[in-house]
Prior knowledge:
- The chain has helices at 11-21, 39-54, 99-115, 141-146, 152-156, 166-172, 197-200, 238-256, 290-311, 330-343, 357-361, 388-406; strands at 58-61, 67-71, 81-85, 123-127, 186-192, 205-211, 213-222, 226-227, 259-261, 265-268, 274-275, 278-287, 314-323, 326-327, 347-352, 367-372.
- By secondary structure, it is α+β, with helices and mostly antiparallel strands.
- Strands 1, 2, 3, 4, 5, 6, 14, 15 and 16 form a 9-stranded mixed beta sheet that branches.
- α3 (99-115) links the parallel β3 (81-85) and β4 (123-127).
- The two termini are 29 Å apart.
- The relative contact order is 0.19.
Amino acid sequence: MSSGSNLPLSGARLWADLHDIARIGATPRGGCNRQTLTDADAEGRAWLQERAEALGCRLLLDRFGNMGFLRPGRDASRRPIAFGSHLDTQPTGGKYDGVLGVLAGLEIMRALAEAGAETEAPLLLVNWTNEEGARFSPPMQGSGAAMGVFTPEQVLDTTDADGKRFGAELSRIGWKGRDTLPEMGAYLELHIEQGPELERDGLMVGTVTHALAQRWYEVEVTGEAAHGGSRMGGRRDALMAAAPLMAAVEEVALRHGGRGTVGIVRAYPDSRNVAPERVWFSVDTRHGDEAVLEAMGAELRARAAELAAARRVGVEVRDFWHSPGQGFDARLCGFVREAAARRGIPARDMPTAIGHDAVYVARRVPTAMVFVPCHGGLSHNEAESMTPEWAEAGLLVLADAVLDAANSQEPF
């Protein structure tokens, strides 16, 4: 790779950090379980705080637990250039999802401190709370609250499956703050692709130009419980009605060129010899065209009505969450492209079909994302993996884009 900035950035240090923090919440199969607002999450936050403060960065902690580490710039009137991602994981998550962006940001701060270098604009390294949405749904609550997408009450009053409240758990682990993160001039986020395209095409970096729109639903099918030994004729089996509707999620997505997923299924009374009286399941739909996404939802509702009539059951399809399509900042995307070109790193433009904190931040702040490959596109899995070379490529491109933004003669 040819030279970009002359900072002493170390891919080896980044790789070591990634595997050091992976010990926190480590799972037997080689992954990580640092779900948000758990003791493991608290330990990971402390790990980051110790290392960032040792570099002279000042911690800012807001009431949602979002962590910002501020490094002053020469021009205090400029808004900081922010970068980061998240440390929380899925219950059976991998070592790189989210954490790569945070620790690459830490390495940028470390290299600046080692070189005694200054930037024109201040820099802000951010760890957003609850990006994953595994324990508290919906996802991206920390960045969403900071950007005004959610009200404070919507976030702090969210409960997990055990009825524990977000705000109470944040206080319990000791990471509820009183600061306000500063208004950002720009935001950049490095992340693994969580898809197969970069690896398949032999590329090391993706410049993310936009995010697909998403609509999530909750579906409840209500029938009548029946003994497993009762005659089949006349049953109002909620699960047998729900099953073709779940299959329709895939069919509709494929027909429209979108994405469709049923992620959670719950049957009641959950007994081996009882035909269920009620089934609840989640639906996640995504598409690059908002109108097509709406059409996918309308088709799903129409199929639900048909099944309700045919099976003599009740079917309710409820809206749960909507994330509109979001474009990223053209100028910042240009910095990412130019950084990859200067370094001789093979790259191309691409969208993201996956929600990231950057998608919410982009609603109010000029934003760009940098993707790097992961093996087989596998993520949200303990077997998630990547190479040190891919991680280093992302670090170098992120660092150059951050410095270009921070030192630009046209401030953000």
